[in-house]
Design brief:
Structural class: alpha+beta
CATH topology: Endonuclease I-creI
Number of strands: 6
Strand order of the largest sheet: 1-2-4-3
Number of helices: 6
Radius of gyration: 14 Å
Number of domains: 1
Strand content: 15-25%
Distance between the termini: 38 Å
């Protein structure tokens, strides 16, 4: 049985808080980023490549070019699916304070944050944490 290390669990939590999503039907996860953020996507892919069945690929997503990768259908993602899809729709888990690690926070900001006047800002990150 394949499991996630605590470090990679934090990475996946951070990715799920940003742009990643999971499919219940196929029990796999996907991450897609704009081509301008492809270096971040490849960095995430190399950390999770053991859990993927193929390399990242280029897609045309609603008028912009993006790079995406998909994880394998593994049971180690089932618990995370249950956390992030309580009602069948992606949401912030009710126990976010128990599962968010420093790795998760950094991937959340990298995947969904922005740089504003000498600091990092993403409205949903700071709304949740305040």
């Amino acid at each position: 049985m394949v499991s996630l290390t605590p470090y990679l669990y934090g990475v996946v939590v951070g990715l799920m808080l940003s742009d990643a999503w999971m499919s219940k039907k196929h029990k796999n996860g996907s991450l897609k980023q704009s081509i301008k953020n492809s270096s971040y996507l490849f960095s995430s892919f190399f950390q999770l490549s053991h859990y993927c069945s193929s390399y990242p690929y280029v897609v045309n997503s609603r008028g912009f070019i993006a790079v995406a990768f998909v994880t394998r259908s593994l049971t180690c993602f089932t618990g995370l699916y249950s956390c992030f899809y309580e009602t069948g729709k992606k949401c912030v888990p009710s126990d976010i304070y128990n599962i968010l690690t420093i790795q998760g926070l950094s991937h959340w900001i990298c995947g969904d944050g922005s740089y504003v006047k000498g600091g990092t800002c993403k409205h949903k990150v700071f709304q949740l944490l305040m």
